Amino acid sequence: MIVDPVQALANVPTAASSALDALKTKPSEPSTTILPSIEEQVAGDAGKRALWVVFVIMLIATVAFSAMSWSVPVSKRLYHVITTLIVMTAALSYFAMASGDGISFHHTRVTVHNKHTINTHVDVYREVYWARYVDWSLTTPLLLLDLSLVAGLNGAHIIMAIVADLVMVLTGLFAAFGSEDTPQKWGWYAIACIAYLVIVWHLAVHGRAMAASKGGKVGGFFASIAGFTLILWTAYPIVWGIADGSRNVDVDGEIIAYAVLDVLAKPVFGIWLLLTHMNMPETNVELGGFWAHGLSSEGSIRVGDDDEGA
Length: 310
Description:
mainly alpha; 10 helices; 3 strands; 65% helix
């Protein structure tokens, strides 16, 4: 039997046509890949207005404290200079945050566990105001210096308190950018809290004892203003824990909470300190030499020796 090759090829489907038919008849499988949704946690109108309001308050306090310093001799302006630098630095920080600078985004991916479907993911981008940490790293040591001078703390205790303060602020910054739900993030937070306890120890134990030794008025004033400061400073890590830490408060709530604390801890603290200091001579710190007179004839730098026979 002779078979026509052309007829045989016509009856045999090619691989390409078979594959095409299979694609047409085979039902398509549903895709199990779901792209993560994106959530941005940013400041709203209320938060932005709060930043501008606090900037104005800090600016007014800077001008007011500078004007107050002109009414006292240069040798007695140490408190005024320190307190003015505090509110001036805070004004710059709040201007940076209000104008959109000094802000970064911290990204974290949140997994949503579903019972009857596959798990989904949400990419969360939350604003972190790193300018606030720069502010704290400069202003809180100056606040501690003000309190230490009132109490009459020695240099060793002042340095240790300031170092603990810097550790507290920097580890708080590391925690703010730490990965969510990790031991490292809350480990940094724990270190910051321990550093804060070191500050409390220096002020509450050594500072209170030294202030009491300077008289009842100084001791009472130091206990009041230091207690006021420590209560406010205790509120900061609480706000951090529920805002930056666990993210149970939105960015607007975080901004407003920190704004209230900053106004109380800086301008209110400053006006209280300066007005009381003006009426309490026991707290005076008088500086002469280069601070008050510059390079005068008594304090000028000499090169060589005036005595020819030496």
